[in-house]
Design goal:
Elements (H helix, E strand, L loop, with lengths): L8 H10 L3 H51 L21 E2 L5 E13 L7 H11 L5 H9 L5 E7 L1 H10 L4 E10 L7 H4 L1 E7 L4 E7 H5 L1 H5 L8 E2 L4 H17 L4 E8 L5 E7 L30 E2 L5 H10 L8 E3 L4 E3 L2 E3 L10 E3 H6 L3 H11 L1 H10 L26 H8 L5 E2 L1 H12 L24 H17 L13 E10 L5 E14 L6 E8 L17 H15 L20
Parallel strand pairs: 1-7
Antiparallel strand pairs: 1-2, 2-3, 2-4, 5-6, 8-9, 8-18, 10-15, 11-14, 12-13, 16-17, 17-18
Helix pairs in contact: 3-4, 3-5, 9-17, 10-12, 10-16, 12-14
């Protein structure tokens, strides 16, 4: 900055020459200097005021915007901040083969308390006990007045319960958002779905994890964010499942059974379209497991998969089919069926000590369900080859179906496969397996002879498995089983238009300390329909069933499991899209008559 002198020499000399006062020049310059200094000070002050105004404007703008955002947001309860990884609660839906929902999620709330924030603890305890009768008022009051700073009261609330708690008005009673698992169909498909519960929990979210069934088997898939919420599609048909359960429940009550199970399977893909175990439960309110007694008495027990039983005469078709495949017999081959059969110190009897001998055709061995005839055929096969064939059908290992309960349902058979084991296993005694094993084995044998692996996932293609028997053997086996329904022990299994074929099996229940009950049976009917072009296998098993409609109780499968299975087929076949086959009359049997 250039500073102007107050008494510039040139002006002073000129003023003296003209007679002016030089002091006036100095006063004028001083005045001008003061005015310039004043203007500069004013400009600095105005700049400072402008900067300060902008700062206050921005600050109040931020505060106003934040207040507006808070006013427009949904109010939430205070959250307890904690370290650690975030809890992912989102879980994908489970749907049936047609996309109908079997399991989904529902938004709800949890209830917790922070006693230091509570105002009237006695009132809160009293009102909570009224809203939730299962809570103890005195225990709540003790917790509220103790040293605890946090406690859970309820993990899930209905909207009505949440409003009732809110009306108490205590600031120490707080709500946390929750996503819970909902099963809209109740007990329908309960054993398949299994159920879910909470894992890691926070006040603002909870981890939903599977505890049984496909919920646990596919837990990683259902919780995987990479799947983007894509539903898990099962092979189950919800409509068919409902029909099977309704018929099976009615049959269980009508036949005075302790329990019952049914498996409906596609013989070509292995898809399970229905699996029912009774008694069942509601997965929305899953009961606790039994801590003592027989696990099979619990409604959580899946009889179709975990129930390992001696399945009786349903095994006879395996023995006969293996012998046909090996070229030892044909359907018309005559075999020795003279009863009783002696083997060392053992005697092999027929049902009610009948004697179907001395000779029976192989077809009639199946139709009349001859233990002796089957045993004679099995001895010709030999134990080593018999065991290997049953292994190919899946009877020596757990079923590979997608459920966490499957590995624990291993078949039971003797470690030493002796000749007496060969005899008894030929007609389904001395070896125990589940109805799911039986469904897979019948599908493998009767679909043309290729191995089927059961699955609960929908399949869009048919994958041919290992060949078990030839198509000729498979066809002959179906024809024999058809005769069992037409003129054998399963005559009550006939369903007009659907060509039902199948085999009954009645086995005495084993005692816990050895031996067998004489008045307690496990009754099974293994069926396939239509017999001429098989589409589905149905297994119905009933525990301690008894038909009391006659003078004496009738406990065989032909009187108990067979009529129930027939009604299942009658109801389910149209739902599966199977049109009834119209049987044409035999015109050669029509004769002209005149009055």
């Amino acid at each position: 900055m250039i500073r102007t002198p107050l008494r510039p020499l040139a002006r002073i000399l000129r003023a003296r020459e003209t007679g002016e006062n030089p002091d006036a020049i100095e006063a004028e310059n001083l005045r001008l200097r003061h005015e310039a200094q004043r203007d500069r000070a004013r400009m600095q002050a105005e700049g400072r005021l402008l900067v300060l105004s902008v700062f206050f404007f921005c600050a109040f703008g931020v505060v106003g915007a934040r207040m507006g955002l808070m006013a427009a947001s949904v109010p939430e309860e205070p959250r307890v901040q904690a370290g650690g990884t975030a809890i992912v609660a989102q879980r994908a839906d489970i749907v049936d083969r047609n996309g109908r929902v079997l399991a989904t999620n529902m938004f709800t709330h949890s209830l917790y308390a922070q006693p230091p924030l509570m105002i009237d603890k006695e009132k809160a305890a009293r009102e909570l006990a009224k809203i939730f009768p299962e809570l103890d008022e005195q225990k709540l009051l003790k917790d509220f007045t103790g040293k605890r700073k946090f406690l859970w009261i309820r993990k899930k609330l209905s909207p009505e319960q949440k409003q009732a708690v809110h009306d108490i008005g205590d600031p120490g009673l707080l709500f946390g958002p929750r996503e819970m698992r909902l099963y809209p169909n109740g007990s329908l498909a309960a054993h398949i779905l299994g159920g879910a519960s909470f894992g890691r929990e926070g006040v603002h979210s909870a981890e939903v994890i599977g505890v049984a069934g496909v919920e646990r088997a596919f837990d990683d898939y259902l919780r995987d964010p990479a799947e983007e919420g894509r539903p898990l599609q099962l092979s189950i048909d919800l409509t068919v499942q409902s029909a099977v359960r309704e018929v099976l429940y009615g049959g269980m009550k009508l036949m005075n059974a302790k329990g019952a199970a049914a498996v409906l399977m596609d013989v070509h893909t292995g898809e399970v379209l229905s699996m029912v175990s009774l008694p069942d439960f509601d997965p929305n309110d899953r009961p606790p497991p039994l801590l003592k007694g027989d696990p099979a008495d619990s409604p959580l027990f899946n009889r179709a998969l975990q129930g390992v039983y001696e399945l009786g005469s349903t095994f006879k078709i395996f023995t006969v089919s293996q012998a046909m495949e090996m070229g030892m017999v044909r359907p018309e081959t005559m075999v020795d069926a003279n009863a009783p059969m002696k083997w060392g110190r053992f005697k092999i009897h027929e049902f009610q000590n009948h004697n179907y001998g001395p000779l029976l055709s192989v077809t009639d061995v199946i139709v009349k369900s001859s233990n002796v005839g089957t045993a004679k055929i099995a001895l010709r096969i030999g134990g080593e080859r018999q065991k290997a064939f049953l292994g190919e059908l899946g009877f020596l290992q757990p079923t590979p179906i997608e459920m966490v309960e499957a590995p624990g349902a291993a078949p039971i058979y003797p470690g030493n496969w002796s000749e007496i084991t060969t005899i008894t296993a030929s007609y389904g005694h001395g070896i125990a397996a589940s109805p799911m094993h039986l469904a897979a084995a019948y599908s493998s044998l009767l679909n043309g002879g290729t191995r089927v692996v059961p699955t609960l996932l929908r399949r869009n293609t048919v994958e041919k498995g290992k060949r078990i028997v030839s198509e000729e053997t498979s066809r002959a086996a179906r024809e024999m089983l058809r005769q069992v329904v037409v003129r054998g022990t399963a005559s009550f299994g006939a369903v007009a238009g659907y060509e039902v074929a199948g085999k009954t099996g009645t086995a005495n229940k084993p005692k816990g300390n050895g031996g067998y009950y004489q008045d307690k049976n496990v009754n099974t009917f293994a069926s396939v329909f239509p017999a001429s072009d098989p589409k589905y296998v149905l297994i119905v098993t009933m525990d301690e069933a008894s038909d009391t409609s006659g003078d004496e109780p009738r406990r065989t499968a032909g009187w108990t499991a067979v009529p129930v299975a027939a009604e299942v087929i009658r109801r389910a076949a149209p739902l599966l899209g199977l049109a009834p086959i119209i049987e044409t009359p035999d015109l050669t049997a029509v004769r002209h008559t005149s009055n």
